[in-house]
Amino acid sequence: MAVIDMNKYFHSVVLEEEKCKGCTHCMRKCPMEAIRVRDKRAIIIKERCIDCGECIIVCPYHAQNAITDDLSRLQDFEMNIAILSTTMYGQFTDNIDMNKVYQGIKNMGFDYVYDEGIAADISSIILRNIIEKEKIPKPIISSMCPAILRIIQVRFPTLLKNIVNIESPMEIAARLAKREIMKKNNIKEDNIGVFYLTPCPAKVTSIKQPIGIEKSELTGAISIKKIYGDIVSNTKHITDYDKFNKGSHLGIGWSSVGGQSKAIGIKNYISADGIDNVIDVLEEIELGKLNNIDFFEGYACIGGCVGGPLNVENPFIASSRIRKISNNEEYKSKVKDSYAMDLYKTKAVCWTNELKPKEIMQLDDDFETAVKKIEKLKYILDILPGLDCGSCGAPSCRALAEDIVRGYANIYDCMFMNDNNNDNEGG
User: Fold this and answer.
1) Would 335 disulfide with which of 121, 190, 257, 386, CB 3.0-4.6 Å?
2) Mean pLDDT in the chain?
3) What is the 3-state secondary structure (H, E, C) of the chain?
4) What pTM was estimated for this model as a whole?
5) 63-67, 100-104, 304-308: least confidently modelled range
């Protein structure tokens, strides 16, 4: 049984060494330069990794994976709640009744199933009011994607003040579902397990290492990919099923890029997917070039959460299905504005902790030593060829220079320096 050790710094993304062939695909695609290849094996630098899952998507040998919980964890609790990601709607064809899917999931051992789309409807109302009435630096940045929040903490700390301080729909859904179950069943909070059926590893990490809150409302996360086969099997044989409460067409649309802005009902926004694209936009925001924009929603995954590596369906097909639903106004929101705003005004769905900048890796704790190492890094960088070819096992010449300064690599790891028999190692 996969049980996550909460006493250590947690990363959902892990490497299965026996499967790794040292092909460097992951190293070249990692947006945080968190992967090296040494002795034909990839190594993840934990301090740099943001659990975006890009390495899982590109690895041809399936050596990169994500740690998530198993269904066996349900045995630990008296009652269990499944929080269903809105991406679930994209994983099934149009002719599948989602009530059957929900019942199939419930039959796997859950006592209650809650649609994340309902929480997205709540978030949409709150965001609309914040954008219209509150004085937050523009553009206001969505707090939806935990991988993007970590990038902002590390690379764009001046933009922390732009991030809206409300919890993600995943957390809001967990809080509301848990309160509902406690009230209906007169059961203590500790006896309830709340599990998110997750499309991405970053969400798993955000449960174990919460952003903006002290403790997540969720107990754990189960990969959609891990249980998808069982869901399909259960759904096929279901004849008697409940009619579940679901989010509106706009709430469900949150899982696709542009969905948040559409649900909020604004036109002056930017939406971007893929970490490189998001970073490009954040750089423009940091330079003050986008102060005339009201809202920015960024997703680490291509297409939005539907592109998460723990989904099953092709992200473009899933996105098409989500788009079709989001345009179908038969899915009316049941959330009243007054209810959503009461949650916001009472801070029931707000962050409690200030989001602070994060250092990826300091060269040294001692200031003078760190300065000397920076000078040495610059010297080494000047003599490296600057081709960023990756043949040394680092994603760029700068990354190799930093590795050399830290003592993790040798300048002759660079094939060009080796060929020239250059003895400038380390300056």
Assistant:
1) 121
2) 91
3) CCCCCCCCCCCCEEECHHHCCCCCHHHHHCCCCCEEEECCEEEECCCCCCCCCHHHHHCCCCCEEECCCCHHHHHHCCEEEEEECHHHHHHCCCCCCHHHHHHHHHCCCCCEEEEHHHHHHHHHHHHHHHHHHCCCCCCEECCCCHHHHHHHHHHCHHHHHHECCECCHHHHHHHHHHHHHHHHHCCCHHHEEEEEEECCHHHHHHHHCCCCCCCCCCCEEEEHHHHHHHHHHHHHCCCCCCCCCCCCHHHHHHHCCCHHHHHHCCCCEEEEECHHHHHHHHHHHHCCCCCCCCEEEEECCCCCHHHCCCCCCCHHHHHHHHHHHHCCCCCCCCCCHHHHHHHHHCCCCECCCCCCCCCCCCCCCCHHHHHHHHHHHHHHHHHCCCCCCCCCCCCCHHHHHHHHHHCCCCHHHCHHHHHCCCCCCCC
4) 0.87
5) 63-67
- With CA atoms as reference, report the closest residue to 383 among 404, 410, 401: 401
- CA 267 – CA 400 distance, rounded (Å): 44
- Residues in Cβ contact with 247 at an 8 Å cutoff, skipping those fewer than 6 apart: 86, 115, 116, 117, 118, 119, 120, 121, 331, 333
* Residue 181 to residues 79, 241, 263, 304, Cα–Cα distance (Å): 9, 20, 28, 30
Q: Give the separation between CA 316 and CA 168, rounded to whole angstroms.
A: 24
Q: How many CB atoms lie within 10 A of CB 267?
A: 9
The alpha carbon dihedral of 318, 323, 329, 333 has a sign of positive
Dihedral in degrees, nearest 10, Cα atoms 332, 338, 339, 345: 140
- Kindly state the average pLDDT of the residues 334-362: 91
